[in-house]
Amino acid sequence: MAIAILAGRDTTEQKQLEWFSTAWRDALLAQNADLDIRVWPNIGNPADIDFLLVWQHPLGILKTFSQAKAIQSLGAGVDHIFIDPDIHPAIPIVRITDPYMANDIVQYVIAYILQHIKLVEHWTEKQHQKIWAKEPPFNLSSKTTGIMGIGYLGSKAAHLLSELGLSVCGWSQSPKNIPGISHFTGESEFNDFLSRSDILVCMLPLTAQTENILNKRTFSQLPRGAYLINIGRGKHLVDEDLIPALDSGQLCGAVLDVFRQEPLPAEHPFWLHPKIHVTPHIASVTNPGTAAPQVYENYLRAISGQELLNQINIKKGY
Ligand code: GLV
Fold it and tell me: What are the residues whose beta carbons fall under 8 Å from the beta carbon of 316, sequence distance 6 or more?
């Protein structure tokens, strides 16, 4: 009986993610020092492996683990698993749902919303010019934040922003009831949702329905001068549509943590655009220390044929 950690699509990425694989191995050994944990490519006989821990695994190798009882994503998202065409349809896929990660991502969203609405860059610029510019607007607190994706993470962000006294609305595929939040559901209410969202935050899972959802049509439905924060996936955004929307003033700025190609290539125009903040997919990095207990619990459940925690719906893709 053994667990395999598969992190990194190719040898370069595997090298970059060595710290991540090691942190996971150590965190699981802290749960049970007798576990047999193997890190790709030192897997031994693939038929020994009962449980797969994956983060951007080498594509095409999952089918070699004929005895694997489950695939555990080492992140909140599972799209990085689904792009592998060879996944056995009967094998359950589970994700991490960790309050530590949720706080992390929500803090990121709130940090960038607050720096925007409190005009942090504006006041810093005035300071550098030694200008005591005490004239309105002093802040943009009357702006409404629209959150796309009101799941575990989105609803937490919506709740905390509303606790800060900010106006929040949400949009997702199924109806939700979060006190103090106006909620919009499905395609038919998408434009209404967009028309209220001065700050648009994408926290959606990546699926065939949500791919390319941040496009010029979407931007055109937002109030003029809207602000975009994408912490979903790079493929949610049509890259070529962002810069014209910023240059025309339809959007006044964008915060991007995720990209179609990661690391973001050095020649990509997003790096140096004055209205774009780029962060290297750090809005929420899985913390093995806090997430290991649920992963270990899932391993025990998988090998004893019990129902798994945080199992995703393969049809829906999240
Ligand atoms: C991060 O992007 C994750 O899916 O956990």
Answer: 207
